[in-house]
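Posting this for the archive.
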Amino acid sequence: MKHVSILVPQGDSILSSIVGPFKVLTGANDYLEKTGRKPAFDIHLVGLSGSTDLYNGLFSVHPDKMIDEVKKTDLIIIPALEPRSLPLNLKFIDWIYNQHNRGAEVASLCVGAFLLASTGLVNGRQCTTHWLAAEHFRQQFPDVNLVPEKIITDEQGIYSSGGAYSFINLVLYLVEKYCGRDVAVFLSKVFEIEIERSSQAPFNIFMGQKGHEDEPIKKAQEYMESNVDKKISVDQLAGLFLISRRNFERRFKKATANTPVEYLQRVKIEAAKKSLESGRDNINEVMYAVGYSDSKAFRTTFKKITGLSPFDYRKKYNREMTTS
């Protein structure tokens, strides 16, 4: 039986990311017992104090173990801890690191990735988090290979999940790994979870990375966003701001974590997404409105960024078009 430590952080965290794993893993144990097998998980809530208040005291969580009582665990689950609460939870960092060295696997849920990354365990490895926190994460942990489009990462016993309730997909992934496919499928049906989701890209809203101090690059970003219907080249942008192309590309990538071409594609596809969500223009009209003339290039880029074709994206998010 695997000893599971679901952390209960101090400060602001998402209650569902504590309760959710507890319920799914408990559900796995129940199903295993009902089918004549032994339960797989010995589940504990592990904290730094006897009680943690959440949502201005409306809820409280009472861990059954303190970290100094847990000498050995097999799986640590880090819930969605708000990054601003990291200073209140520094005692977890060494504990997680030491437990991992003793063989424990570690899984972070949503913005729990900030606590995971603080341990150094994902330096040079893939990690995901909520797409809204991606820019902040990159700035704080530049040595981590952030892949915010992914729902799940698995790097030799260190796991992370994408944003919000997608953490359930990671918990089901772990259930399948430890208990078998039949248990994971059963729980996906009981909890009505789409088991094979692999990308959070369809949910991503590109907001532009402007939390930097390079003013010419900010102006270049703003120019792209204001001229989404035009064909813009990197040479044109570099010349517009009197910077050599090589220097412009270097500075742009450093400031935004995207190349100029990637950024321009994301700006155009974000505009296309908004049109597909709320408008009645056909897909070719949307394509022309965001500066594309090659339908194959548009569809390929759209699917690369969102994980869906333009048609499937409209079908998923435009209620008027799907009901007309």
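The chain has 14 helices and eleven strands. The longest strand covers residues 2-8.
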